[in-house]
Amino acid sequence: MRKIFPLTQEGRHRDRVLEAVKHEIRKYLKRERRRELPEGADFLDFDCRLGATKETAEVVHLSALIGQLDAVAREGGAQAYVEILAKPGVRRPRPPGASAESDHPAQSSDAPDDPASDAERPAD
User: Are 109 and 103 in contact (CB under 8 A)?
Assistant: First the structure.
């Protein structure tokens, strides 16, 4: 999808127009993810660009797309250029010796491993 979305419309509140644009983007992503994957692909990956115009559009990660769209709207832009291109993705295997727990970002290295030590802490 390569499209210029107007962020203002006569007779409509600016926030409702922005929500409609977000809805259309999410609907497009959902539709693309339902398509059958090509041979050898594990998932669909998306290349995304967003900006006030096509010339000023910057590469953004899919998870940051809606946040960047909000930023363009906050800056007072009259339009937003959104480019989302689907491509097949292949998962890479973990290197030998690496466990899922050791490289998980939610794991804290300073957190106690023993749940019994929580009982020793004073309650707030």
Answer: no
Beta partners for 50?
A: 58, 82
Domain range for 54 is 2-89
| Cα–Cα distance for residue pair 112/74, rounded to 1 Å | 42
Q: Cα separation of 5 and 25, whole Å?
A: 10
DSSP 86: E
If you count DSSP H runs as helices and E runs as strands, how many of each does the chain have, helices first? 3, 4
Strand order, beta sheet including 43-51: 2-6, 79-89, 43-51, 58-60
Distances, alpha carbon 24 to alpha carbons 20, 27, 30, 99, in Å: 6, 5, 10, 39
Query: Residue 101 pLDDT > 90, yes or no?
Result: no
Higher pLDDT, 96 or 16: 16
Q: Is the pLDDT of residue 119 over 60?
A: no
**Domain membership flag for residue 15:** yes
Residue 74 within any structural domain of the chain = yes
Domain count, the chain: 1
Q: CA torsion sign, 85 to 48 to 44 to 94?
A: positive
